[in-house]
Write a structure and sequence with these properties.
With about 290 residues, the protein is α+β, with helices and mostly antiparallel strands. The protein has 2 domains: about 5-60, Orthogonal Bundle (Multidrug-efflux Transporter Regulator, Chain: A, Domain 2), CATH 1.10.1660.10; about 115-285, Regulatory factor, effector binding domain (Multidrug-efflux Transporter 1 Regulator Bmrr, Chain A). The protein contains 8 helices and 12 strands. Strands 4, 5, 6, 7, 8, 9, 10, 11 and 12 form a 9-stranded antiparallel beta sheet that branches. The protein has a 3-stranded antiparallel beta sheet with strand order 1-3-2. Strand 2 (about 35) and strand 3 (about 40-45) form a beta hairpin. The longest helix is centred in the first third of the chain and has 34 residues, at about 75-110. This is MerR family transcriptional regulator. It comes from Pseudonocardia humida. Pfam families: GyrI-like, MerR_1. InterPro entries: AraC_E-bd (IPR010499), DNA-bd_dom_put_sf (IPR009061), GyrI-like (IPR029442), MerR-type_HTH_dom (IPR000551), MerR_fam (IPR047057), Reg_factor_effector_dom_sf (IPR011256).
Length: about 290
């Protein structure tokens, strides 16, 4: 392949690794000018040195590959400015989140007794009727799931003449630990009467588990809930309880009705039983 650069030469010229160049070819981001049908060797044009350098610079800024593709496809300054502006906004949010995490970590180091400042108590939960939508997803996609699920639930209740009788809620996992890459989650609404199912919308009639809950009130944004969860976990251990089912959250005040995250109020609840009482799994164990 005359007048073309081998993949190794392009790697030297752009400081992108050969492995990265092969991946970008597979993704259609930087396709060789020619590929030898007999050997499979890739040949790149001289102009692709510039494209490879652009990709390297953007990847060093953690710009997503799909956004890099937009820049390369358009080739105009306006698109580049738009993509980088969007990325700058994401990076600003990430920086704010990093600063918040660092602040939280410093507070944990400076104030190791912080967990005990959160009031944890027990309350009894009755087996009230609910309608719910459940799925399995990754932790990062939970906001998207809730944004879709709650409007469908409210519409279902209104369509069948029911009344929502409490704050919206959610249940997570099995109570035996959380897998952020595969978490079972249900969004639900407590209702005044049992309502029918809607399989097309994923709505299932159900009842809240009748159980004792260890609960604590979280004040503030959802991203800051680790101290509240930590306090409940400490209380469960100190009071010799066992967790008997999925963890719950009740959204007493929050979006969309309350826009200020500082004013959000969420009840964190763990279903528990005294350690001497057998759990449902233990009762059913042969």
């Amino acid at each position: 392949m005359r007048n073309l650069l081998s993949i190794g030469t392009l790697s030297n010229a752009s400081h992108l690794s050969v492995k990265a160049l092969r991946r970008y070819h597979e993704l259609g981001l930087l396709v060789p000018a020619a590929v030898d049908a007999r050997t499979g060797y890739r040949g790149y044009s001289v102009s692709q040195i510039t494209e490879a350098r652009i990709i390297r610079r953007l990847r060093r800024l953690d710009v997503p590959l799909e956004d890099i593709a937009r820049i390369l496809r358009s080739g105009d300054a306006g698109t580049t400015a738009q993509v980088l502006g969007e990325h700058r906004a994401r990076m600003k949010l990430r920086l704010e989140e990093t600063e918040r995490i660092v602040s939280d970590l410093q507070r944990l180091v400076d104030e190791p007794g912080e967990l005990h400042r959160v009031l944890v108590h027990e309350r009894w939960q009755r087996a009230e009727p609910i309608v719910r939508i459940g799925t399995r997803t990754v932790w990062a996609d939970l906001p998207e799931f809730f944004d879709a699920a709650y409007p469908r639930l409210f519409a279902h209740v209104a369509r069948h003449g029911g009344q929502v009788v409490g704050p919206s809620g959610a249940s997570y996992g099995s109570g035996q630990g959380i897998d952020h890459d595969d978490i079972a989650v249900s969004a639900w609404l407590a209702v005044d009467v049992a309502l029918p199912a809607d399989p097309a919308a994923g709505v299932v009639p159900d009842r809240l588990p009748e159980t004792r809950l260890a609960v604590a009130l979280h004040v503030g944004a959802f991203e800051d809930m680790s101290a509240t969860y930590g306090a409940v976990g400490a209380w469960v251990a100190e009071h010799d309880r066992v967790v008997t089912g999925p963890l719950q959250e009740l959204y007493l005040a929050g979006p969309p009705g309350v826009t200020d995250p500082d004013a959000w109020r969420t009840e964190v609840g763990w279903p528990v039983a005294p350690a001497e009482d057998p759990t449902p799994d233990e009762r059913n164990r042969p």
